[in-house]
Prior knowledge:
The chain is mostly beta strands.
Amino acid sequence: AAAPSASWVGMSASSGTLFAASVADVAVTPDAASFGLGSYSAAITFVDQANPAIEKHVSVVLNVNPPDILCSFDADPKVIVLPGTTNLYWSCENASACSISPEIGLVDPRSGTAPAAPTSNTVYVLDCVGAGTSTIRLPVDVIVNVPHREEIPPR
Length: 155
């Protein structure tokens, strides 16, 4: 026997068909990837093709959220001796814009390396934004040691 079905139009530029063997088993065509970000709702009526008098009414809400931003951020070395430098490394997925503070500014939202020459202990922070309101903030500490100078008394 054929599965009950219902058609829908108008939730996006596309249309599709819902197929259901039961209310708990619903597949949507086209898939959620074809929808833009947002919330979509539809009232669906399932009609049993073998007995058209049997109908099921279902309300469906589809929320399409932006993907999470995934980033890693590190410094190498994490401990320097003045007047040393360190390199900041980052790699991100699903970010549209990133910056590093203090001093570095805007950086490539995918990945990169930036040299830094702090003169005191510094917390560098990678801030990224993605689609919608998704954000991520990652800190990395760089410790700065001042070289010890030994005074030699005159003879």
